[in-house]
Amino acid sequence: MVSVLLKKVAFCFLLCYPVLTACVQASEKEVSDSPTESSEEKIATLAGGCFWCLEAVFERMIGVNDVISGYTGDETVRNPTYALIGTKQTMHAEAVQIYYDPSVITYTDLLEVFFTIHDPTTPNQQGADIGPQYRSVIFYHDDQQKAEAEAMISKLTQKQYFRAPIVTELTQLGTWWDAEEYHQDYFRRNPRQGYCRAVVASKVRKFNNVFKDKVRKDGVGSRP
Question: What is the three-class DSSP state of 196?
C-alpha cells in the first residue's frame, strides 16, 4: 500500500514539475524585465531667461532625452501665450522641462549647467531681456530636488562664485503649459535668426567649452 502511494506521489510530481518550473522562470523574467527606479526617466523644470537658450543647451547634453519649452509660475493665469506673458502682466516664466536619464546624468549635473549658462544675480532680467518672464527660477518637483537645489545655491554662495547675490527663486512646480509649437526646437529650426546668432549660439558655445565631457557626440535630446 505504501509502495503504491509513493508511486502515485512520484507520478504527480513528474506531471507538475514542468508547470512549476515554467511558473518560476516566468516570475524571474517578470522581475528581471521590470525597470529599476534609478533607470526611470525624470524631469527637471528650470527658468533662466529666454527658453530658446535653455532648450538649445540642454538638448545637447548627454543623458537628456527631450526638452520642452513652456510657461509656468502663475496659478492665477490659465492658458498663457507668448504674447500674453510678453505684456509683463503675469508671473509666468519662460521655462523648460528637461526629460533626462538619471543613470547617465544627475539633477545636480543639470543645475551646474544651469548656473553656468545664465546669470542668476539679475532679478527679472537676462541681458537685454527684461521682465518677470525672464527671471531665474528652479521649479522643483519633489523634496529631493528642492534639497539639491538649496545645496547648490549654498555652495555657490559660500564660494562667492558670483559677484552679486544669487536671486534664483526656488518654487514648487505648479501647472505647466507647453509653449506654442513654433517655439519648440527653435534654435535648431532657426540657427540664422538674429537672436539665435547673437545670444543662443554664444550660450551653446559656452556649454560646449565648459562641459566637454557632457556634450553629446551626435544628435540632440529631442523626440519627434
Answer: helix
